[in-house]
Every structure is written in structure tokens, then in C-alpha cells.
Amino acid sequence: MIPLARPWTTEAEEAAVLRVLRSGWLAAGPEVAALEAGFAERTGRAHGIAVSSGTAALELVLQALDVGPGDEVLCPALTWPSPAHAIARLGARAVLVDVDPEDWNGAPEAFAAARTPATRAAIAIDQFGNPVRAAALRAALGDLPLVEDAACALGSSFADGAPCGSLGVAACFSLHPRKVITCGEGGVVVTDDGDLAERLRVLRNHGQRAPGAFTSPGANLRLSDVNAAIANAQLARLDAILDARRTHAEALRARLGAHYRLQLGPAGSRPNHQTLGALLPPGRDREMFIAAAAERGVQVGRLSYAVDRLGQVGDQGPLPNARALDERGVAFPLFPTMTIDEREKVADVLEAIA
Ligand SMILES: Cc1ncc(COP(=O)(O)O)c(C=O)c1O
Fold first, then answer.
1. What's the pLDDT tens digit per position in 43-101?
2. Whose CA is nearest to atom 2 of ligand 1?
3. 3-state class of 124 per DSSP?
4. Is 179 a catalytic residue?
5. Is the same domain home to 178 and 201?
């Protein structure tokens, strides 16, 4: 079976882990500091703050922005639930906005229309690594604090060439194995705001400002040097990883574009192709489609969720584009270590069952 994704680790990652184990310093140390600097550099930001997951990154940023009960936070309706759940876990209300039918990101017009006097912040998601319409979002949201959920978008760039991760007050990345680089679990926040960075460092560390000085009942959401060392080895190879993904994605899109509705980016933007997704036509049974692909040796997965259907943030009325992608969205195999034979087989099978 050709899997949806396969993490790409090399001897560099193995050597990095060994180096940390032999150093005797396993908790956050020089590797975490290097990872934070690496993400800040890659995104053109002043600060990086490494945490235990992309979900923790989102939750800490919202917490650091003082989002809480009585607040509303705008969030795209189509997503892995982390951003909506992060809002709900702080006692605020996630107000879902529908996604654009072409780029599958929260539509700037929908964000603007959903804003009320209670709106405290907005989360924009570069869904599946596809960059948001950054300039239109900035114009639509004005002075509202914007958090970029770039969990999937390391190495992507917006239409004006700026890197994903450079939008808004802070951006959050994930290091989960389905992402472009991974260390098993992990996340990184990047920001230009020094005060916000400091609050995040305190919040991830038990709410401890200085040894013994606790300012809030905090959690431990730190990343270890073992994880960071793996992520650093991956980050050093990011351009090669992106090149391989783009080569495979372009070849697959060239063959599948005539048969499937694929995600389209804003003109001029550059996605990292974290996920190759498609929207099946109305009436097509997704489970039967997934089974037909599996019988032929190709793993196809469900694409994502319309978050209001999961039960934690309540039904929020018509969200037709998110609903369609929830019901009929699929993800196809795409990973940098795919062989050309594997890629051709994926294209052959998906053409045959289209
Ligand atoms: C859009 C989005 N945000 C946040 C996350 C959460 O990242 P993590 O799995 O590292 O907690 C994910 C993970 O799939 C995601 O896709």
C-alpha cells in the first residue's frame, strides 16, 4: 500500500539524537534555542518560541492575548479541530467562517462579515500549506489581532513573496509527522512582539517568570532538546524536502487536475503541498472511493472536518463550502521520498477510479 505520508528521516536525525543523549542535557537547551532561531530566520520574525505541539502553540498565543470568557474569536470552519478547540478551551466562543471554494481557506469577506463588537481576535489558517490571501485578510480585519495558524505551511509563501508565518501578531507551526518537517510532536510560535514572546516563554514554563516566581497556574508545554535536535536536522534539509514535494505535487496535479477538483492557491503564492487534497463530485460515495483506491494499493484518506459537526463549538448555520469538503474531501498520497514508480502508480490508480 502506498501510504498518504511517510516521514523522511536520515542519518543526520539519528546523529542529532545521539549527540543530545551523549551531551547529558535532554530538556530544553541549545537545540531548542537553535530551533527557535531557525524558525524566526525562516519566517523573517524577531522571535521563535518552541512548544510541545502546534495545538499548544495556538492555545498559548490566545492565552497570551488574554482571550477568555465573553470573547469571540473568528476561525475557519474547515480544519483539524485544534484552533477551534483552543478557543473553546479558554472559555471563548469560536465563530466559524466559511472557506473559499477554490483555496479552501477562510474567505476574507466571511471574516469581515462575522466580526462583532465581541470579536477579540481572528485565526487565519494556511490550510494544507496553501497560503491565505494575506493582503485581503489584513484589509478585511483592520486592527483586529490576527493569529496565523501555519501548522501545515512551513516553506510556503504568500502572493507577495513573504513567507507563511510572517502574517499577524504571531504564527503557529506544528512538527507532527504529517507536516513538512517533524520531530514526532512539537510546535513553534514566531512573532515580532518581544512582550508577547516573553509571555509565551513564561506560559509554556508553568507560568514561571524567574526561578520560584510563578505568575499564573501554568502548564509544562516545553519542547525537549531531543525533539528539537531532530527538528533542527530536518530544518537544515527543508529546501530539499520542499523541492521533492513540489516536484511530485506538480507531476500528480498535472495528471489529476483533469479528473478531480484540487485545491488552488491565490495567484502568485507558493504552497509547500503539505497535503494533496481533492473534492469528490456530489453524489460520489467517499467510503467506496477510499476502498476502491485501497484495493488497488493506494491509501486515500478523509481530508478534514467542518468543525461545527464535531460537537464542541455548536452548530453555526450554513457553511456550505466547509460542509462539502467535510463530506466529500479526500487526501491523496504525497511525500518527498516517493519514488517515480510510486507516483505513477498513484496517478494511474486515481485516474482509473475517477
Ligand atoms: C490547521 C492545523 N492547526 C493546528 C494543528 C495542530 O498541530 P499539532 O498536531 O502539532 O498539535 C494541526 C494539525 O494537524 C492543523 O492541521
1. 999 999 999 999 999 999 999 999 999 999 999 999 999 999 999 999 999 999 999 99
2. 151
3. strand
4. yes
5. yes
Three cell numbers, residue 166: 510572517
pTM: 0.98
Compute the Cα dihedral for 247, 264, 285, 254 and give only its sign.
negative
Q: Is 277 in the pocket of ligand 1 (CB under 6 A)?
A: no
What HEC string does 244-274 produce?
Answer: HHHHHHHHHHHHHCCCCEECCCCCCCECCCC
Kindly state whether residues 135 and 114 are assigned to the same domain: yes
| Shared-domain flag, residues 83 and 230 | yes
Choosing from 217, 236, 255, the residue where a domain stops is 236
Please report whether residue 131 resides in a domain. yes
Q: How far is CA 328 from the centre of its chain?
A: 21
In one-letter notation, the amino acid at residue 203 is: L
CA 82 to ligand 1: nearest atom: 4
- What per-residue string of b and e applies to 7-23 under the rule 16 or more CB within 10 Å gives b? bbbeeebeebbeebeee
Reported as a single tens digit per residue, the pLDDT across 224-236 is 999 999 999 999 9
Domain of residue 174: give its range. 11-236
Task: Give the pLDDT band of residue 314 (cuts 50, 70, 90).
Answer: confident
- Its sign, for the CA torsion 321, 322, 324, 325, is positive
Confidence of residue 315 (pLDDT cuts 50, 70, 90): confident
Say whether both 81 and 158 belong to one domain.
yes
Q: How far is the C-alpha of 86 from the C-alpha of 79, rounded, in Å?
A: 12
Q: Do 226 and 256 sit in the same domain of this protein?
A: no
**187 CB near ligand 1 (under 6 Å):** yes
